[in-house]
Specification:
heterodimer; A: alpha+beta; v583 fold; Enterococcus faecalis V583 fold; four-stranded antiparallel β-sheet; globular; B: alpha/beta; Alpha-Beta Plaits; Rossmann fold; 4 domains; six-stranded parallel β-sheet; five-stranded parallel β-sheet; 19 helices; elongated
């Protein structure tokens, strides 16, 4: 093989000693100096795993599998096809099943907010007369606890989902799979944040009896709604669609409005629904989660990949799932603190650890990954638009491709960074950025702030070692 | 009119992006007309008006992307679809110099024209980074040491299979396309190509070639272990082949410490096939074997440079000069028992060349370089009789910078050696160039002055011999460094070889 080096312009990538790069630059040579850190934090077993996966033959197979995964993610076309009770649509749902966010967790190990939500849901379902009895029921073994993610669902914050809650029904038109998530409860003192007093239960009842059924009728009238298109527009309008949903909520409401108006409910009920939607920009937040879930689940069965299809937290642990792995195989590490601005009167020590399936948005490529699209909320990441831009660009280093279907105007219409590659995370030490809300650590209180966090590196290290064993 | 149309199902772009992409696509050479749009009724009507609508396009839905190319006559439109797809996935504008890369793969993706990696990281991670670079199609200079010989072999084999350079591990010097890498000197471009398993050895040969008026085409480093029996000279052989094929290289020069005999034989076999004159400077090499292989044997670094230049010009090789008068005067002024040479070096090959000059006269020499434990000098041992220390060896560089970067440790040793009344002369090298300290002589002069004063106070003259390896195009210039030495009363030599000859004459047992 002939090496063309002597006939080419020297263009150098410099790794390690900066002075070599300086000398090259002084000679007028093109040089890029890496901000290099030892891969895998310098841990021998992690480096060995990376090396194993880097063997050209292995790497080529992984590249092919990863290309298929991101192809499915970007080509998925999630459509909002309806709203229905969980018991009627969610696979594996029973009257005594309670789904929750994140990886599996037993009742006694649940965090404060999740316990609050579980006991609230048990009362809501009529399985206990009050919260005290609900705690006994939860501990009795009569309730089946299971992660949302293992039932084609996602749940924001505690993610607690019970049989009679109304769900979004999202169909991925390209690949045929479905995804579900429950409805936004809007205000801060809500079940998903761990609040569970009578006002919370009353709202859930109204959502079951009025809000959910009216939405269901509306979609029957309007027909399926193209969620990827709305998401793409919302991001062009300044949402990152995890913590900022102003534009997305307007767009979704615009799409539903005619159907809501034509529904069979009374004007009074319609007014309540319109007011409820108007009460918080978060109305469409769960919708985008289901959009992402429907897309990522399309890659569930692609074998031999190193791309994530799930990042989810239960308030105690943060769990990752990788495409092609068994659906119940979670790689976990401790849930992290969320750092960011808090509501007046609360302090960082009041905050519960990172919780919720909402990191499905970052797993798809928006949320924290699309910070550059949402300059209005840069205060979450440190205050400047440059910070926000840098975060989005940094995510390119740990992802497989960009999504041509959803783009960020401020970055020259760069597509969303797509397909988080476990290898790249471990190699660069760059952790995915997650925008999220902060729940109070005690049950019964609710949301107290919002900010950013990351999954634990430990979970990625466990994943890379396991993947090297299987694929290497 | 030939048309190429591709419909990408379920691929949505906003109309603004598509307008930009269509505009760019229409500027691609060889495209007569390009149309990139979503499959809306309106867009299909436009295509219909242009007579570009075929059945496939007619079937496209609003969520499908249509790419239509009308190529220039005689061209195949299919070749342009890929280029349009690249526009669709265009990266963020990269004019911003603040973009930082964390990995070789990330940088290579953003800089597709990158063709070379310089790697200087902890040895535990070095092989892995080098492998990534090679797999990414980059030539590699691996400065790091502490890389296992197994890794070295597999890296070099991988590079060989891919047609890439794998210089190192432990490669400190290279000049590629007239760009100095790591520790190298600003020498004139020219027609002599060098392949070297010794860093300072190759620096010395390159600056002597420069001093003789010629220049360097390429200087390929191999790392010090390349000519071992295990590695088998993979990189030196590939280097010879690359220089043999390089039209700008007219003469090839090889530099190495003593190679393993079986590897030496393999390399010599290769020079016979080079089709160009090859000068071989293998310290302790076999003159007869080199000659038999058709090479030109060099017994010293200067001779290697002089022969290469002579082969290029057709003249006869230049000779070294030493200051016999000065040597005689120093010997005449010596006190009783003042007879030993102390070598304090930062360049390994320079230290070797001087030490071998004394060994050639059967002197006993203590050092941290030789293998005989009876003559082994540790870093904290006091010097005795003739003593040579290479401050670039691991025992001096563990946890501190190489003496070419930080001359302070060696400088302090000058003052210490001056206390010993048996010392006739101290000999030192000063290496200039890329990577090196900005004023190695200046950093050492105070200690040289102190050493001279110490000896004078005890009624002796202490001779200090300094060699400056560098060119006047280096910063600082060779000339400026020499002037500082001369001002401090130091005897300055003109080459590593002349330095060895000077101390050999100083230490000679008989006149």
């Amino acid at each position: 093989m002939t090496n063309p080096l002597f006939n080419s312009k020297l263009s150098v990538i410099n790794v390690g000693l900066q002075m070599f790069a300086d000398d090259l630059a002084a000679q007028g040579t093109d040089v890029a100096h890496l901000q290099w850190t030892p891969p895998g934090g310098g841990k021998p077993e992690v480096i060995a795993a990376l090396e194993k996966l880097a063997q050209p033959q292995t790497a080529a197979k992984i590249e092919a599998a990863n290309a298929e995964v991101v192809k499915r993610i970007t080509e998925a076309k999630p459509m909002l096809v309806g709203y229905a009770k969980a018991l009627d649509v969610v696979p594996g749902m029973t009257p005594t099943t309670i789904l929750h966010a994140g990886p599996p967790v037993a009742w006694e190990d649940m965090s404060g907010p999740m316990k609050g939500a579980v006991t609230g849901a048990i009362v809501f379902e009529g399985l206990a007369k009050d919260l005290a009895e609900a705690a006994e029921v939860a501990a009795s073994g009569k309730i089946t606890f299971s992660p949302c993610h293992e039932h084609s669902c996602v749940g924001s914050m505690a993610g607690v989902t019970s049989a009679s809650m109304y769900m979004h029904v999202v169909k991925n038109e390209t690949h045929g799979n479905y995804a579900y998530t429950n409805l936004s409860e809007q205000l801060a003192k809500i079940l998903r944040m761990g609040a569970n007093d009578q006002s919370v239960i009353d709202r859930l009842v109204w959502m079951r009896d009025v809000f959910g059924p009216m939405l269901a009728e509306a979609v029957e009238i309007t027909g399926p709604i193209d969620l990827r298109l709305l998401l793409s527009q919302a991001i062009h309008m300044g949402d990152e669609a995890h913590n900022r949903n102003g534009a997305g909520t307007l767009l979704l409401f615009q799409a539903l409005a005619s159907g809501l108006l034509q529904s069979s409910f009374s004007t009074e009920a319609k007014k309540e629904v319109f007011d409820f939607i108007a009460s918080s920009d978060y109305f469409s937040g769960p919708t985008w989660m289901a959009t992402a879930k429907a897309s990522l689940d399309a890659a569930l069965d692609v074998k031999g990949s190193t791309v994530l299809i799930t990042m989810a937290r239960n308030g105690v642990e943060h769990g990752l799932r990788v495409a092609g792995q068994p659906a119940d195989r979670w790689f976990t590490g401790p849930a992290q603190q969320v750092i960011g601005p808090m509501f007046a009167g609360y302090k960082p020590e009041d905050s519960g650890l990172d919780i919720g399936d909402s990191a499905i948005t970052e797993t798809y490529g928006f949320g924290g990954f699309a910070m550059a699209a949402a300059p209005a909320i840069v205060s979450l990441v440190g205050g400047t638009v440059e910070d926000a831009t840098a975060y989005s660009l940094e995510m390119l280093e740990i992802t497989t491709t960009t999504n041509p279907n959803v783009t960020i105007p401020a970055l020259g219409f760069l597509g969303l960074p797509t397909g988080i590659d476990v290898r790249k995370v471990v190699e660069t030490g760059i952790l995915p950025l997650i925008n999220t809300a902060i729940a109070h650590k005690e049950p019964g209180i609710g949301m107290i702030g919002a900010g950013i966090t990351h999954p634990p590196m430990e979970a990625f290290e466990k994943a890379i070692v396991a993947l090297a064993e299987e694929l290497g | 009119m030939s048309i190429t149309a591709v419909v990408k199902k379920n691929t949505y772009f906003d109309s603004v992006s598509l307008m930009r992409i269509s505009t760019q696509a229409n500027t691609i050479e060889g495209i007569e007309q390009a149309f990139v749009a979503m499959g809306t009724e309106m867009n299909k009507a436009v295509l219909d008006n242009l007579n570009l609508l075929d059945d496939q396009l007619r079937a496209a839905g609003t969520g499908d992307l249509m790419m239509v190319v009308v190529p220039a006559p005689g061209l195949d439109g299919g070749q342009f679809i890929g280029q349009i797809e690249q526009l669709l996935t265009a990266k963020a504008p990269t004019g911003d110099s603040d973009i930082v890369y964390k990995t070789i793969a990330g940088a290579k993706e953003a800089i597709p024209e990158a063709n070379f990696a310089v790697i200087a990281v902890n040895g535990a991670f070095a092989a892995s980074e080098a492998r990534k670079a090679l797999n990414g199609g980059l030539n590699v200079m691996l400065f790091s040491d502490n890389v296992s010989v197994e890794d070295e072999i597999s890296l070099k084999q991988l590079a060989h299979d891919k047609g890439l350079l794998m210089m190192g591990p432990d490669c400190g010097t290279a000049i590629i396309n007239n760009v100095g890498l790591a520790f190298s000197n600003n020498v004139r471009p020219g027609y002599i190509g060098v392949v070297a398993a010794s860093g300072t050895g190759s620096q010395e040969v390159s600056v002597q070639i420069h001093a003789l008026g010629a220049g360097i085409s390429q200087l390929i480093g191999t790392g010090g272990r390349d000519l071992s029996a295990e590695v088998g000279g993979i990189m030196m052989i590939d280097g010879i082949r690359m220089l043999a094929a390089d039209p700008d290289t007219k003469v090839i020069t090889l530099v190495s410490k003593p190679p393993a005999p079986e590897t030496e034989a393999k390399v010599l076999e290769e020079i016979a096939k080079a089709g160009k004159p090859v000068v071989v400077y293998f310290i302790g090499g076999d003159e007869e074997a080199v000659a038999k292989a058709g090479g030109h044997f060099a017994a010293s670094s200067f001779s290697a440079a002089a022969q290469a230049v002579a082969l290029l010009d057709g003249g006869s090789p230049a000779e070294t000069n030493i200051d016999a008068e000065r040597i005689a005067a120093v010997r005449a002024n010596a006190q009783e028992g003042q007879q030993y040479i102390r070598g304090l070096f930062c360049g390994g090959t320079l230290a070797d060349e001087s030490m071998y000059a004394l060994l050639a006269d059967d002197h006993q020499v203590y050092s941290n370089m030789g293998k005989d434990p009876a003559f082994r000098l540790g870093p904290n041992d006091q010097s005795r009789e003739h003593s040579f220390l290479d401050f670039g060896e691991d025992e001096f560089t563990n946890g501190r910078p190489h003496p070419m970067i930080d001359p302070s440790l060696r400088a302090q040793r000058v003052a210490a050696e001056a206390e010993d009344p048996s010392v006739l002369a101290i000999v030192m090298d000063f290496v200039l160039g890329y990577g090196a300290h900005e004023d190695p002589v200046g950093a050492t002069i105070p200690y040289i002055k102190q050493a001279k004063e110490t000896a004078a106070a005890q009624g002796r003259e202490l001779e200090i011999i300094g060699y400056v390896l560098g060119t006047d195009a280096d910063a600082p210039s060779r000339q400026a460094q020499i002037k500082q030495l001369l001002d401090a009363g130091v005897t300055v030599t003109a080459s590593s070889t002349a330095t060895g000859q000077t101390i050999r004459a100083l230490a000679a047992k008989e006149n």
